[in-house]
Amino acid sequence: MKVNAFIQARMSSSRLPGKVLTNIVDKPMLQHIVERLKNAKMINEVVVLTSNEHSDDAISTFCDSHHIACFRGSLNDVLNRFYMASQIYPADHIVRITADCPLVDSELVDDIVAKHLAAKADFTSNCHPAMYPDGLDVEVMKASALHSAQSQADTAHQREHVTPFLFTHQEQFLCVNYDAPTELPLLRLTVDHPEDLTLIKKIYSVLYPLDTNFNLQKTLNLLAENPTWLDDNKQFSRNEATQV
After folding, report:
1. N or C: which end of the chain has fewer CB within 10 A?
2. Is 152 helix (H, G, I), strand (E, B) or coil?
3. For residue 129, pLDDT beyond 70
4. How many whole angstroms separate alpha carbon 134 and alpha carbon 240?
5. pLDDT digits (tens, 9 = 90+) for 21-38
6. Phi, psi at residue 123, to the nearest 5°?
7. Domain layout of the chain by residue ranges
């Protein structure tokens, strides 16, 4: 049973261009995400999925120089990008992560993949509905479900966002939601604005030197000790961005 993690990444963010290669504690954000996912025991291979646009040459160059697997495909038809990548980097199941989530938790990824496999689900997530802070979203899908979506999804929204065809067709797919063990604050821990990056850099500056793979609970503990940090980006709503 092989499980690959696909990280959806692009440079042309409308609100914070180039954010995926912005340094956080002397490493590009994308590198942190790759390294954190490589700590997940359930993941066999981590692949960055970017577009074939010239603007994303920097991502491809970065991956090549750091020996990170990279696939390039359509900018807007991200579903097709995932499908084509699954042909080059085949697996039985695929974990979708977006490159604006530098706090992705390898322990949480493992738990969600384990639940997905135990349930023999087609699609499992912790974000439909949202159960975790924004930036901790994890989606897992069977390769066969991805292939079905590729052949059947016919709206721009379904093709841009990869997974809506799966979780909106539960008569066709077994969809499972991963519930948080306790009620968690639905904080904004993603990066879409400069203010988001300010918060993330504060978190990393404290926790990363102590533990390069610090988990969500350590982040929540730190924020409980420093509640005013959350003022940095509280004006923004969840899931503002249409793409990474």
Report:
1. N
2. helix
3. yes
4. 10
5. 999 999 999 999 999 999
6. -150, 130
7. 3-231
At residue 241 the predicted structure's pLDDT band, cuts being 50, 70 and 90, is: very low
> Which H/E stretch holds residue 141?
strand 139-142
Burial of 214 (0-12, 13-18, 19+ CB in 10 A): buried
Cβ–Cβ < 8 Å for 24, 204: yes
Residue pair 212/35 in contact (Cβ under 8 Å)? The answer is: yes
- Asked if 100 contacts 20 with a C-beta cutoff of 8 angstroms, the reply is yes
Residue recorded with tokens 């306790």: 182
pLDDT value of residue 6 = 98
Helix crossing, 143-152 with 78-88: angle to 10°?
140
Strands 93-98 and 139-142: antiparallel
101: tokens are 């989530």
The answer to whether 1 and 92 have CB atoms below 8 angstroms apart is yes
As to burial, measured by CB atoms within 10 angstroms (0-12 exposed, 13-18 middle, 19+ buried), residue 220 is middle
Overall residue count recorded for the chain in this entry: 244
Percentage, residues of the chain above pLDDT 70: 97
Cα separation, 183 vs 12, whole angstroms: 35
CATH code for the part of the protein at 3-231:
3.90.550.10
